[in-house]
Write a structure and sequence with these properties.
The protein is mostly helical. Helix content is 68%, strand content 0%. The chain contains seven helices and no strands. It has helices at 12-25, 29-43, 52-55, 65-88, 95-107, 112-130, 136-154. Helix 4 packs across helix 7 (136-154). Bound molecules: protoporphyrin IX containing FE (HEM). Protoporphyrin IX containing FE binds at residues 40, 47, 50-53, 70, 73-74, 77, 100-101, 104-105, 108, 110, 114-115, 118, 149-150.
């Protein structure tokens, strides 16, 4: 999946903005991950039902380790996407992982709107986490990386 305009489109500075903000958040990844998904469920309550580990669990949402792990995956994989975009101009994920990722999201009924809401919640969470460090440039860098990661996943959701 090539980035429009070639390699220079996602710059070293943009990669830096993504990694800088994630480095700030990652020591409290569980807490931010929870906030992130609570925002998603606030906007799209029905999304909760898709997660088997929420349906099948008696523990409170706040205590659910698998929910926090999924949230962290979204953060970490978006960061990795940023690194790859800067390095090669495309999101590089091992084909077998991508196939699995696409298959799982298709199977559980994740649609475009879920990815959209999740993007919004992701940006809001980072904004809250980094405070005064938040800039339009940081927002754009995360948006672009997330967009390309999702596009890669979607190629395996048909
Ligand atoms: C499962 C990553 C977006 C819902 C997973 C898994 C990963 C992952 C790594 C585990 C796959 C496995 O079983 O091996 C991501 C990434 C995303 C993303 C990187 C965005 C860039 C979303 C969105 C939703 C969603 C937007 C819905 C709101 C789910 C569900 C599962 C899942 C329902 C299966 C959970 C279960 O086992 O019950 N995702 N995800 N994901 N994801 Fe995502």
């Amino acid at each position: 999946l090539k980035v429009e305009g070639g390699e220079s489109w996602f710059t070293e500075e943009e990669e830096g903005l993504v990694s800088k903000s994630w480095n700030l958040m990652k020591k409290d990844a569980g807490e931010w991950g929870l906030k992130f998904f609570l925002k998603i469920f606030e906007i799209a309550p029905s999304a909760q039902k898709m997660f088997s580990f929420l349906r099948e669990s008696n523990v409170a949402l706040e205590q659910n380790a698998k929910l926090k792990a999924h949230a962290k995956s979204v953060f970490v994989m978006t960061c990795e996407a940023a690194v790859e975009l800067r390095r090669s101009g495309e999101v590089v994920i091992r084909e077998s992982s991508l196939k699995k990722l696409g298959g799982v999201h298709l199977k559980y009924g994740v649609v475009d709107e879920h990815f959209e809401v999740t993007k919004y919640a992701l940006l809001e969470t980072i904004k809250e986490a980094v405070g005064e460090m938040w800039t339009p440039e940081m927002k754009r860098a995360w948006s672009v990386a997330y967009h390309h990661l999702v596009a890669a996943i979607k190629t395996h959701m048909k």
